[in-house]
Design goal:
The chain contains two helices and ten strands. By secondary structure, it is mostly beta strands. It has a four-stranded mixed sheet, with helices on one face.
C-alpha cells in the first residue's frame, strides 16, 4: 500500500469516530444504545463483566473492592462480584465471578472463561455463533 492510500492520521493519534458514525447511519445500522441486559462476547476479556447488579439475583452478589484495567490503562472500580447462568436445552452455562462496575458501558462475556468454566467450544460463522459441548460436540446454544 502506498502512502497516498493510507488514511490521514488524526491529531494526537486518536481515532476519529465521526466518519464511522456517518458511514454506519448511511448503511442503515441501528443507532440505539445497548440495553442494560444485552451481553456481548469479548475474546480479549479475562473476566465476565457487567455494569449493573440488577442483572443478577441479589443472593449471588458479593461485595468487592477490586478494579478492572481496560485497554487504555484506566482502572474501573468493581463494586460486586456475582454469578448467574444461561439456560440451554441440555444444561445451563455458568457465568462465574462476574465483575460488576457501574462505569462499564456494555456487559461482556469472556469467551475464554465461558469455554473453560463450562467445557464448551464457541464457533463463529457468517450467520452468528454456536456453543457446543466440547466432549460430545453437541450444539447447546
Amino acid at each position: 500500500m502506498t502512502a497516498a492510500h493510507q488514511p490521514a492520521p488524526t491529531p494526537g493519534g486518536a481515532f476519529n469516530t465521526s466518519g464511522l458514525y456517518t458511514a454506519l447511519q448511511s448503511a442503515g445500522v441501528p443507532q440505539q444504545p445497548p440495553s442494560a441486559s444485552d451481553w456481548y462476547f469479548d475474546t480479549g476479556a479475562s473476566s465476565h463483566m457487567s455494569a449493573s447488579p440488577g442483572n443478577f439475583n441479589p443472593s449471588s452478589l458479593r461485595s468487592s473492592s477490586s478494579t478492572i484495567t481496560v485497554g487504555n490503562g484506566a482502572r474501573l472500580p468493581v463494586t460486586h462480584q456475582a454469578h448467574t447462568l444461561i439456560p440451554t436445552a441440555s444444561s445451563p452455562l455458568y457465568l462465574n465471578d462476574v465483575l460488576i462496575s457501574p462505569h462499564l458501558v456494555k456487559n461482556l462475556i469472556s469467551v475464554r472463561r465461558l469455554t473453560r468454566d463450562n467445557n464448551v467450544s464457541i464457533e463463529f460463522d457468517p450467520c452468528g455463533f454456536s456453543i457446543k459441548d466440547l466432549p460430545s460436540r453437541v450444539e447447546m446454544l
